[in-house]
Design goal:
Layout: E1 8-10, E2 16-18, E3 27-29, E4 41-44, E5 47-51, E6 58-60, H1 66-69, E7 79-81, E8 95-97, E9 111-113, E10 127-129, E11 144-146, E12 168-170, E13 185-187, E14 202-204, E15 219-221, E16 237-239, E17 251-253
Parallel strand pairs: 2-3, 6-7, 7-8, 8-9, 9-10, 10-11, 11-12, 12-13, 13-14, 14-15, 15-16, 16-17
Antiparallel strand pairs: 1-2, 4-5, 5-6
Length: 275
Amino acid sequence: YTNNLPRATILGNGKVGIGINNPLWQLDVADEINISQPRNYFMIGGETVLHNAGTENIFTGVNCGKDILAGNASANMNTFNGFSAGEFASGNDNVFIGHSTGRYSNGQSNIFIGTSAGNDNLGDYNSIVGFTAGMYLTTGKENTFMGLRAGECNGQNPATPIVGLNNSFFGYASGQAIKDGNENIFAGSHSGNSNSSGSYNTFIGSNAGYYNDKGTYNTYIGNNAGSPVNFNLHYASAIGTNATAVNDKVMILGDNDINVGIGMSGVAGGPLTKL
């Protein structure tokens, strides 16, 4: 007791209170708890679930930031949350959230959210959200992938260099095969799904540009808009559902059942011809 106030209480049932007269839990503490160096971690069931090893880091989850805690990696100003998030990772200024997110990832200033998102990533300034999104991106930089399996790289071997830059993929399996393509914008489920080396493409719509692999500077807008398999076109545009281009430097409006009208907005019954 200090000044007739309890400093610690042990009840007959084994419950311990620190600064509390009648503890309700096995350990009931009033005020802050501090864990001093060198044991800067908190354990549950024999597993480390919270630690701040390194400099200005905070890691929450079993095996989270494991190598950093063990002193095998140097990393600063990171926030990892989830089972094995950031396990075997180093690098600085990263945010990893989710089961196994960012494992073996050593890049800088990345945000990875979702189970296994950003695994084996060595690049910088990537924002990746979604289950297995951005796996094996290796040294790719300044990419934004959002959606289940977006920019997943088709499960490539981590030893295979995947170096795409400045790509933006939104939607389930969008840009899934990316390898070294740059400056692409894909939006829609499976948009740009097969694009590995194509650059400067804009594909918007479910399955838009699905078969493009190495084609460049193409614009495909609409459900299933694009070019057939093995047609890696350049400077082609296809606009409208099922619109298909098969030659370079063309613009296709609609599929073969579509009539195109110019200045005919709201005109009943028209247009009646292809143009």
